[in-house]
Every structure is written in structure tokens, then in C-alpha cells.
Here is the input.
Amino acid sequence: MKALLLMLTAASLEVGGDALIRAGLKNHGWLLMILGAAVLITYGFMVNLTSLEFGRLMGLYIVLFFIVAQATAILFFKEKLPLSLAVGGLLVIAGGLTIACWRTP
Here is the structure.
């Protein structure tokens, strides 16, 4: 559960940092870009605080990142979720569930 919370926080930081940089680039806001970079550095530390092996960590993290990124795109950037992205996202989620649940004997 702790690993999940750390990864969810990291995904939120990564998406937020990317959004700040995107807003800074769009509006020539250097302060937003610098703040975005600082948030991304924090994400890098946060995502690696779990005890999961790196491959499993990244596999599971990508699922959370995808979900947080799409929620941000819809809620904050008012983007629509096209069918191709929804179908691809379901494949990403299915991959994450496989990584999380598959136990090798």
C-alpha cells in the first residue's frame, strides 16, 4: 500500500511538472518552467523510494501515470479522450495488472 501511495504521488508530481512546463512554454513563463523542473526532480526521487525492483516498479508506475495524465488532460486541459487512447489505455492497464498479479513459481 505504501508503494502504491508513493507511486501515485510520483505520478501526480510528474504530470504536474509536465503541465507547468507546458504552460510555461505556451505563455513564455520562465518561472512556470523552472517550477515544473523542480517538481520533476522531486518526482524522480519520489518514484524511487519504493522497495520494488526497477522493472516491476516502472511497469506498475506507467499505469498510474497514464491514469493521472488522462484525468489531468480531461479535467484541466479540457481535452476529450478519443477511442484510440481509451483502447490503448485499457491495454496499458491490462499490462499493469499482469505485472502486479503474475507470480512466477
In short: The CA atoms of residues 24 and 30 lie 6 Å apart. Helices lie at 2-27, 30-47, 54-75, 83-101.
